[in-house]
């Protein structure tokens, strides 16, 4: 007769007493300045061996604008595709003639306000909308703004060389041009942005990123509020700031004069409460609010798109590796550095403005080149946002 094991008749098994074994030592090297430098060297070595082609998404759209297109139609095209920049093409000469970016819109707004002092608002607003893209350079000359340089890179060049060009030109993007073998004409292949380059590093150099453990402030990445205040200087010098009651046009003037793309909004105690960006100005333009730039920042922020991702903040003690992990996960263009618990222990105030970090700062540090911007392109290309919102399907190459 067969029997089965039950709780009552199952054999008793004597178990040996557990013996706690000593934990094996970790095989990971300890964090040190040497491991940090070794990780940077490895990242640079990777960039030298990869080309711009390696950063291309599997599927993307390429937005190119004819230089004879009206500004109004060009802006609408960018907004419909969720980007704020695109290469310009001269169809008569079949060649690349520059980039249409947020800085051009900022210049248009300034031109509109300056000209409106002697002309009616309605007339000037109509003139602005019917400007052709090829006339933008004439506006820059009238405003005393130097013409942006026509720099580009070949898509098969190394990512390291492309990164150096971005640093030297203070640009947020570099057009990638090739030549047609039959006609010899230029061909716009894509546009490489700082964000796409840094995200490529974050995705493909994970091991090295984990070794970038040193604090951002100690690495001198970013711009920080001067610890010594001088009479006559702004309270958060050299960082431009505004309050909720600042007129929008004053902020637009900061964008153009300083070549920046965002201004922290602070309260009376210096606590960061928001951020006003160049894309917020584009939102007003999109709504046809040329005459609305005299409203306050607080009023303008109510026009902001509901899908605004929010202000990304960090503290000076956060590591570069943590920042790169953030870039890997979400689209980030800048971080506002605020005082944290460490500063509060030394008499500071949590949340108060301490500095600002842009992608340019991060890229310049990672590349490790003491590159001096060439005289012809210094501060000519203010860093704008690469996107207003992600396109619903494939990624746009002009982002």
Automatic annotation (TrEMBL):
CBS domain ranges (all copies): 146-208, 233-295, 304-374
UniProt-recorded name of the protein: CBS domain-containing protein
InterPro entries xrefs: AMPK_gamma/SDS23_families, CBS_dom, CBS_dom_sf
Record keywords: CBS domain, Repeat
Biased composition range(s): Polar residues: 1-11
Organism: Antrodiella citrinella
PANTHER family: AMP-ACTIVATED PROTEIN KINASE, GAMMA REGULATORY SUBUNIT, LD22662P
Family designation: Belongs to the 5'-AMP-activated protein kinase gamma subunit family.
Compositionally biased spans, kind Basic residues: 12-24
Lineage: Eukaryota, Fungi, Dikarya, Basidiomycota, Agaricomycotina
Location of the region described as Disordered in the Swiss-Prot/TrEMBL record: 1-32
A Pfam family hit: CBS
GO cellular component: cytoplasm; nucleotide-activated protein kinase complex; nucleus
Gene Ontology MF terms: AMP binding; protein kinase binding; protein kinase regulator activity
């Amino acid at each position: 007769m067969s029997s089965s094991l039950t709780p009552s008749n199952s054999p008793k098994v004597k178990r040996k007493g557990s013996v706690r074994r000593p934990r094996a030592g970790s095989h990971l090297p300890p964090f040190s300045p040497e491991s940090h430098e070794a990780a940077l060297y490895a990242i640079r070595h990777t960039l030298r061996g990869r080309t711009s082609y390696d950063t291309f998404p599997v599927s993307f759209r390429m937005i190119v604008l004819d230089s004879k297109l009206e500004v109004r139609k060009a802006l609408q095209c960018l907004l419909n595709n969720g980007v704020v920049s695109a290469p310009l093409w001269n169809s008569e000469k079949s060649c690349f003639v520059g980039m249409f970016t947020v800085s051009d819109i900022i210049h248009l707004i300034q031109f509109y306000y300056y000209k409106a002092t002697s002309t009616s608002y309605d007339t000037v607003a109509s003139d602005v909308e019917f400007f052709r893209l090829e006339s933008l350079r004439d506006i820059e000359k009238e405003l005393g703004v130097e013409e942006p340089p026509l720099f580009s890179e070949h898509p098969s060049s190394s990512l390291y060389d492309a990164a150096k060009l971005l640093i030297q030109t203070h640009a947020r993007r570099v057009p990638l041009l090739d030549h047609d073998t039959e006609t010899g004409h230029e061909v716009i292949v894509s546009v490489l942005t700082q964000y796409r380059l840094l995200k490529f590093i974050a995705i493909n150099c994970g091991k090295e990123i984990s070794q970038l453990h040193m604090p951002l402030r100690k690495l001198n990445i970013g711009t920080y509020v001067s610890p010594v205040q001088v009479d006559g200087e702004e309270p958060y010098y050299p960082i431009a700031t505004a309050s909720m009651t600042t007129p929008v046009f004053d902020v637009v003037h900061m964008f153009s004069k300083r070549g920046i793309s965002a201004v922290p909004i602070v309260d009376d105690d210096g606590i960061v409460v928001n951020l006003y960006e160049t894309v917020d100005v584009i939102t007003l333009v999109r709504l046809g609010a040329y005459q609305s730039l005299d409203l306050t920042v607080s009023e303008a922020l109510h026009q902001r798109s509901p899908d605004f991702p929010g202000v990304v903040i960090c503290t000076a003690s956060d590591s570069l590796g943590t920042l790169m992990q953030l870039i890997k996960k979400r689209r980030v263009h800048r971080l506002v550095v605020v005082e944290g618990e460490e500063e509060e222990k030394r008499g500071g105030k949590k949340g108060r403005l301490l500095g600002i970090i842009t992608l340019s700062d991060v890229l310049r540090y990672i590349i490790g080149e003491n590159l001096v911007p060439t005289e012809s392109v210094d501060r000519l290309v203010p860093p704008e946002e690469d996107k207003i919102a992600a396109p619903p399907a494939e990624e746009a190459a002009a982002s």
